[in-house]
Design brief:
By secondary structure, the chain is α+β, with helices and mostly antiparallel strands. Among the domains are: about 5-65, Arc Repressor Mutant, subunit A, CATH 1.10.10.10; about 145-220, Roll (SH3 type barrels). About 40% of the residues lie in helices and about 15% in strands. The chain is built from 8 helices and 8 strands. It has a 6-stranded antiparallel beta sheet with strand order 3-8-4-5-6-7. The chain has a two-stranded antiparallel sheet with strand order 1-2. A hairpin with a 6-residue loop joins strand 5 (about 180-185) and strand 6. It is globular and about 55 Å long.
């Protein structure tokens, strides 16, 4: 049975929250989807009735194996589309998220396979987020936030959160992109800015932005 776009969106959001180590509470889901808590409550009851999630009041939702399978398929569509839009169609990395949101529910499995083959079966999208494999295996993702990194240690930008196009444009202008090497040279106390050395220059990154940039060490590539 083909699920509605709304149901698929809920499953995807629950997966992303779980993957980020957060509880998929009614409030968290409502904020992510920009809907009311009442709407979320009704949809969670529907998903639970379809055995796609396990939901207990005040404890949040968890995906069932069937729900996780759907979520991974939609994420695969989304992230393959993002990369296709950037690498083949010339979109910038700040444009692809919203465009992929519109397309992810409507492509066929054949089209998905063609994109994957054309892109040589990629493992990560333009923002560094992992692309699930055809059989639902999720590659590892960068989880060390910039503001938590050690001083004077070489890192590589592994992933940048993709929901804020303005932030992505700013980071691209500064050269902070997945695959770029940097070193933390100073961290101000009390949630102050983080100074990084990148391509021969020192940049100051605000604490809020530093929470959206995730690093890996060179031996993790």
């Amino acid at each position: 049975m083909r699920l509605s776009q709304a149901l698929e969106d809920y499953l995807k959001v629950i997966y992303v929250l779980e993957a980020d180590g957060e509880k998929a509470t009614t409030t968290a889901i409502a904020q992510a989807l920009e809907v009311s808590n009442a709407s979320v409550t009704n949809m969670l009851k529907k998903l639970a009735g379809m055995n796609l999630i396990v939901h207990e009041s005040y404890k949040g939702a968890e995906l069932s194996p069937a729900g996780k399978k759907v979520a991974l398929e939609i994420l695969r569509h989304h992230r393959l589309l993002e990369l296709y839009l950037k690498e083949v169609m010339g979109y910038t990395w700040d444009e692809v998220h919203d465009e992929a949101e519109k397309l992810e529910h409507h492509i066929s499995e054949q089209f998905e396979d063609r994109i994957a083959e054309l892109l040589n079966h990629p493992t990560h999208d333009p923002h560094g987020d992992p692309i699930p494999s055809k059989d639902g295996v999720m590659p590892e993702k960068a989880t060390l936030a910039l503001h938590d990194a050690e001083l004077n240690t070489l890192y590589i930008v592994g992933r940048v959160k993709d929901q804020n196009p303005e932030l992505l444009r700013y980071l691209e202008k500064q050269g902070v992109l997945p695959g770029v090497e940097l070193t933390i040279v100073e961290k101000a106390p009390f949630d102050g800015p983080v100074a990084i050395s990148l391509a021969g220059q020192v940049l100051s990154i605000g604490f809020a932005i530093a929470q959206d940039i995730f690093l890996i060490q060179p031996n993790q590539q």
